[in-house]
Amino acid sequence: MTWSEPRRHIPNALTLARFAAIPVFVWLYLRAGDGAAWGAGLFFAGAALTDQIDGYLARRWDVHSAFGRVADPLADRLMIGTAIILMWATGRIPLAAAIVVLARDLALVLGYKLLAPRGFELEVTFLGKLATWVLYAALGFVLVTDEGTAWPHVFLWIGVGLAVAAGMQYLVRAKATLNAR
User: Fold this and answer.
1) Domains and CATH numbers, the chain
2) What pLDDT shows up at residue 171?
3) pTM of the model
């Protein structure tokens, strides 16, 4: 077996690690109590970093898989969704931001589930990647700053706007694909 065989699995292993990181993140967040949650914030940043690394390695080594195409964005949605629910439940972010992002993510997951059997392939767009990164960064900043710090919330609303725009972009692409059939 050559080095190329085991390395084919590294991007998917990083995605699986992101799924496994969710309960650890929850524990770190809840353990932190009020105020800045540095442990959870740094752990969350590490999870975000694995998203970039697995994508980079998959492209660099040309090791794409059907599992990775579905699991990678799902891991992001679950990690971000978990952070949003926790931070909303503890008063760190506004309900409106939580609802918008969670509704958009739910629509993407359900839409993909409905459209995949009809041959629709969800390709992540640059805008989708940008929205995910801004949300990761904004939520990370909210985690590591004291409650009531305003500037991370500005960044969060930028991420929410980008997420909505990316969701609309996916909707337009899905509609065009279905109409072409």
Assistant:
1) 4-179 (1.20.120.1760)
2) 86
3) 0.89
